[in-house]
Amino acid sequence: MIEAHQLRKSFKIYKSKKGMLGSMLSLFSGEYEERNAVDSISFKIEEGEFVGYIGPNGAGKSTTIKMLSGILHPSSGVAKVLGINPQKNRKMLAQNIGIVFGQRTQLWWDLPVIDSFDILKHMYKIEDRHYRRFLKHYDDILDISQFLQTPVRKLSLGQRMRADLAAAMIHNPPVLFLDEPTIGLDVVAKHKIREFLQEMNKSENKTVVLTTHDMDDIEQLCSRVIVINQGRMVLDGSLEELRNHIGLPSILTVTYEQPPELQVVYGIERTESNGRECTVLYDRSKISSPALLQEISKWGTPLDIQMKEPDIEEVIQNIY
Ligand SMILES: Nc1ncnc2c1ncn2[C@@H]1O[C@H](COP(=O)(O)OP(=O)(O)OP(=O)(O)O)[C@@H](O)[C@H]1O
Fold first, then answer.
1. Residue whose CA is closest, atom 5 of ligand 1?
2. Domain limits, the chain
3. CA of residue 99 to ligand 1 center, whole Å
4. Where is the ABC transporter domain (predicted)?
5. ipTM
6. Which of 6, 36, 148, 227 is 20 to 30 A from 283, alpha carbon to alpha carbon?
7. Whole-prediction pTM
């Protein structure tokens, strides 16, 4: 459904000389170097997937999204979305994708939200009955009716994001590209946006590519993550594969009837005990959870057991 094959984008970085005069001269000297913002990225995303496209600042995430959506042309390589080449057929692609940039609205700044929607309705040639259904449906799931008459510049960030998301869905596209849609939002607004995105993916089978720095977005929404760093792909897999790749230990906390008698077990990296409480850090690739449970029950009589996988935030920090 979405394909990137050896996708690369380089930008010219003009060399600047020191001082005011130097900066002026460098404008005219034309000396530059080329830097790859995205460097030979390849992946395939199937229909209905929810993919987190993540990486540190400047990794090349937005540049990739812009190439997939036809805003930027690749320096080399090929992108295809629903079989459409964004470079060659941007208009046809626009009918089939929705885009949201969290940092910048796609709506008309000084117009009431409803006027922006009306313009989009005409641009996408949407029938009146479909448009009415759209307004009703998006009021039900994003509460947009309360600010339809408000100019975009007067909306709160959360309202603006809801308006932008609704606008991106007006033509009911099967594919959504979301570039940091939860940036700067408070907890309640983030929750609402996440619920909406989950609904779009689960009930309407939309394929979603999401860039974000928010680990809760990734944990709650994405079934797959693609990690890039300095323009290059570092990992492509499930959240579990991401955790395993980093090799951070899983954690088991046990409360025993009596202080336990600890033993050395292959796969357990560290054990900390404090009276009846015991914390076990273990490597799941070396010992399975059932086997571990069997071992630790030899140390005493467990009253309560809790398991915790490594935090995705910790995992990401380790990968960069
Ligand atoms: N138009 C441009 N001209 C020159 N360099 C650019 C241009 N656009 C992006 N870059 C550079 O390309 C690199 C990748 O930028 P990009 O915006 O894709 O990163 P990102 O992963 O989206 O970062 P962030 O998380 O900070 O939004 C950065 O080094 C950036 O400075």
1. 11
2. 45-244, 249-319
3. 18
4. 22-255
5. 0.95
6. 227
7. 0.80
